[in-house]
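Hi all, long-time lurker, first post. I run a small reading group and we've been trying to get comfortable going from sequence to structure in the token notation. Rather than ask abstract questions, I figured I'd post a concrete chain and ask someone more experienced to write out its structure so we can walk through it together at our next meeting. Sequence below, copied exactly:
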Amino acid sequence: MGTILKGMSRVPWHELTHAYGSAEEVPGRLSRVAWGDALTSASALSDLGLWLGELAVFDATVEAVPFLWDLAVTDAVTSRSGVIELLQTILEHSNPPKIDVQHAAHRAVLDGRSMADVLACDEDAAVRAAARDLVAAIDSHVCESCPPA
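-- Answer (accepted) --
Happy to help. Here is the structure in token form:
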């Protein structure tokens, strides 16, 4: 795997939105999750949860999901289980007015299924449990924006 969060600077975050407006602060929060201590990482992850997935999914959610997968599989990240839980939250939420955004956000999570399988065998019990829950959510995912495979 390459450098953690590689390519994040190429995303036009200032043009994207999350639950509360402009997504220009998303890269900073992703960085805090990546390199922060446990408290800093958890706080940043809480912000990301509110912004990207708890209320609905947004165009910033779609762009953030690959970076969330990157964080989930990086052992040095202190809040990996929380990152995995956020991925599951994203998969479970919608945005009916923007069904294309909902589909893209869900697809980005679903496309990480192989990483979830690896995480389900992780040495960290919390990561393992969160990943197993995510695998079950991926396997049972059905929504109006995601046609059956």
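A couple of things your group might point at:
The CA atoms of residues 73 and 119 lie 7 Å apart.
The chain has one domain: 12-139.
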